[in-house]
């Protein structure tokens, strides 16, 4: 699966788990918190939807997606030029490009920064400026590999994708009962106060209100939100009044815990809306289940 935008927290590695809950008759897929758009790309590559709505409040990021989809040749050439120009003065070049991006928001500059920054982890200061440091151990994605991924995504999404940089509540206003909404918002542990990983945090009450309105409209949605790692729990469960089916995805051993000398498994929460549960005829026995790779391989049979 092509993946041109490296993003910490991307759902690329667990996309296969999430795609299993897509209805077979899904027409449009909405991603209000797109980021790296990993689920959109995975769904497009596997024919899980007919058209796509990619939204993120981070406008420079959406501009980058516009270049990836509609101008792959130009973006690939600009990225290659930046990548080659850095050789021999990698650190100072990165700092110069970071300053230039904060002034201009040019998409090729953002792509270069994402490819070079520490752990592909974006960070913004209180003024909304990109301020993450470079990973001095590597040069970033090779231009040929990047070009392959850019053209791969362009081929998948061009002509059937709408892009927007607006509030997430507005981005799903046109969704119908024939569509599916996938949401991967900032988690509760980072939503209450300003967090450098996001242009803007997310109020839990605002999200809850949106989920309630989507339920009233019989919209099918999947929500990745919080979870736990070892004994550490991230966020509280969402209100029972929403009647969501709550599952856990085994996301594997935590890389952060490994760095600290611990072996702990991360479990990502996955919530399914009542409309989606009815649409795919999901058995109540799945509520509270932990989805491992083995269980996922059996899921289509269990759903049937």
DSSP, total strands? 9
- Helix and strand succession? HEHEHHHHHEHEHHEEEHEHEH
Q: Determine the structural class based on helices, strands and strand pairing.
A: alpha/beta
Continuous helix count: 13
CATH C-level of the largest domain: Alpha Beta
Distance between the termini: 27 Å
Using the coordinates shown, work out and report the CATH topology of the largest domain: Rossmann fold
Corresponding CATH superfamily of the largest domain: Vaccinia Virus protein VP39
User: Mind summarizing the main beta sheet?
Assistant: 9 strands, mixed
Please state the second-level CATH architecture of the largest domain.
3-Layer(aba) Sandwich
Strand content: 15-25%
How many whole angstroms does the radius of gyration measure? 19 Å
Shape: globular
Q: Roughly what percent helix?
A: 40-55%
- How many domains would you count in the coordinates? 2
Low-confidence stretches: 190-199, 254-262, 300-304
Average the pLDDT over all residues and give the rounded result: 86
